[in-house]
């Protein structure tokens, strides 16, 4: 397939969207992680947390801080984060390695507690994946990629109903892209269809 207008062919001969073509960190994330299926509680909770911290910021900023986030949040193990108290909030607010936003920090802790509570029913990962749509976008250009969908709106409402915060429809669509629920790789990208969830 001929690369589209928003795809850049790298020196390795592989086509990627412009956002993943230059920065080595973003390029590696795109090539190895973004859009691949994440179906376990721990993985989904971590990504919900990071997507929440990303709100209003660039993903590159969050990705660069991810090691510090993991250290600060006990590797995003839900049971450990759910046990955080006021002293932990203050510790996190003093940690220059992460995004020091009190509401986002408190949301990550509250979301851990909500994640633990969900185990009595279907569990976080199964709940999130239950909002997988019947089809996925097939964008040629970057401006054809949605920023939210009926499913991300419904997922946002359901998570909020269950006590989650910083899970708006746009944030949840970004989550769905990141963990493979939808495939928004450009049709000219070497990663299109690589999740095994969707046909090219």
TrEMBL record:
It comes from the Bacteria. InterPro entries: Adenine_glyco (IPR005019), DNA-3mA_glycosylase (IPR052891), DNA_glycosylase (IPR011257). SUPFAM superfamilies: DNA-glycosylase. This is DNA-3-methyladenine glycosylase I. It comes from Amycolatopsis albidoflavus.
